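Recap from last week: sequence in, structure out.
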Amino acid sequence: MNSRSEQNLRAEELSQGSSVDNLSIQELQINLCLEELNSSDTLTRQHAISQLQNFVDNPKVVAALKARFEIEENPYCKSDLIELVKLTTVSTTALELSKSQTSQALEIIRLWNSVEIALLFDLVKHVKKLSTEDQVKVFCEIFGSAKSPAQIIPALSLSRKVMLHDEVLKRLEKLLHAKSPLMVIRVINLLTRLKPARLATHLPRLLVDKSMQVRLAAIKALHLLSQSEAIRLLNEFLFSKNENNRKSAFSALFLLPFNHTGDVVLRLIEQAELPKNLDQVISFLIYNNPDPQFFRRITISYLLHGKKLARLKNYWSLAARALIIARLVDKDEIELKTQALAEAKKFIQSHTSKDTADEVAKEEAAPSGHQNNELAQLFTVKEFSENEANRLLKICRNVTSPSEILAAIRLISTHRLTSQHFSDWLEALLDHDSTDIVCAAIASLQKINSARLLPHLPVLVFHKESTVGETAIKAFSSDYSDKFADKLKLWLKDNDARIRDVARKGLMEIDFLQARDLIFGYYRSVAKVEQLKFYASILILNPDRLTVYRLNDLAARSSGEKKQYLCQLSDEIKKELGDATNDENTSTLSAIISEASLQEQWAEILCKIKQISYNNQEITLSDLTRSKAFNFVMAGFLIITIVLFLTKFRIDNIFTGKTAPATATQKTYSYDLGEQTLPQADLAKARPWDYTLPELATPSPELNEVMTIEEHRVLRNDLREEIGTDADKVSTDFINLSPEGESLK
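Predicted structure tokens:
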């Protein structure tokens, strides 16, 4: 956190009802962990225990740990709690030592192994009075004779000069292999402050430790060496499919500077659901880290997503208030917000034709006035009975005025009239000439019977009126996100500019994390810069460091103009984030890798780290075939197959002298197996070489009629790419696949 965030901002300046003013960062962390201490999930409890070890001087924490210890059944959690309870135990006797005892290193070592653990914190004060050489000797002896982590932990508080001694550092490195996650976490944090170079070689192993708490501590240490890799791994934790991993990783937001995690916080805010404790954490981070760059980013997010996520407005206002209280701006809140909205709107419009700035405050328009008295009477009814529903249905079948149609649609939506007759009427209105009526019908069907709307959505998104198209896109993306994503996969690589424009609008509506995956899937398959540019605006409008990482990774595996453009796009997103041109080339990194012991190893260490991923992904066939285990297995299968083949067929036939009959050859089409029954062969005597593969025939033209227009185009483009320079020699069958002349209506 920056210098301004070190002080808790004044409570009276916070918005009404906010609880952030009464909480310090320590209290937030404690509350978060105490809530997770009684979780039903083992990993979540382990995470809470590991975090609470930093607050064992807090009476509330001590009481909670002891209470949990009494009921804990998991052996791993129980083991961690035992060590913590030992550290919190208060001795009933005072430590009384003579001057001769405290001046001799050997005597202190003897006492260390004999007194209560609760007295070790008093004893370590006497150790600090010894010479540096004697303190090193005491530490090394304690390390060799300690029977539990609780006996070593007090010694970790010795002076920096002692802890930097080479013999001490060697033993600290050995502690990185300790069975207790609590001990490993303490040593990681200690080495990060003392000598990160000694920790760097262990990071590839620590980042995949079975304890998630250890992995989080390793990410914090990694941040000193490689910000991009640390942010990537932190993203994988915070957006994991495993809910318990996500919850336990929330406290990781305190691990790294806010100016490096602000984009991660923004992605969390944009998620559909936000746990209560995370809401407190985010509010605290935003309010106590006033940042003009973050305020600009959240203003843009508010304009893009504020209509769907009401909480965005609260966080946006909190970010504005933090800037004013910190005196980073000389404007009042209204003036600051007005100016920020104007600049953000201009920025959005420079990257997209979509006018989103007016959507935040736009409310549903009321239907214009009408002269239908029966409709007016129905608007006075609070709850519809069957009689009122029948009256409205009769009106719907006869009205022709646009204002009356809109009024009837509003009544259907208000009272959620799900009768099939109302759905039929609304469905028929989807072809109406009035844009307002079509949009209202879409909204009403979405509310009362979205299944009836679904078949029309893939057509309505291409409506000649952009308002209708955007309304359909919103309905499609919100109610059928998976089906919409499948369509986007086809649309975003279509050559038709109109279809790609719909894909771009659709990508703006879905969750950005999903949109980014679709865009990068497309980026991997194209080489032309113009195709890359078409969807780049979505990445620029939603910048984060994980996007930069993935762009750089893709650029490293590309060449020519594609590589150059991806690097350019990466730099543009960095600029939006307020990052330097090269975030890896920091003074901290240079100082650490300049050590002779690490210079030659760092490239290899970083390569190992880049191969680490916390996402649960199935192994691909290409990865499998490259593994030694796969090669051994395949070799084994091959030997067994040969033996069985010789035994079953060759040897069998030699001794019996019989030849299995071959089956009759029959022409078989790939799309039609015919009506005739194929002759059955005796499987016990049949030989593989007696069979002939069926001939493949050109598919019937009727098969293509069930394909959509966009599927036609994708198939045609794929075939053109396969044909390449021989396109002029293409047969008439290929020409017939072309949907030229067809148009979207």
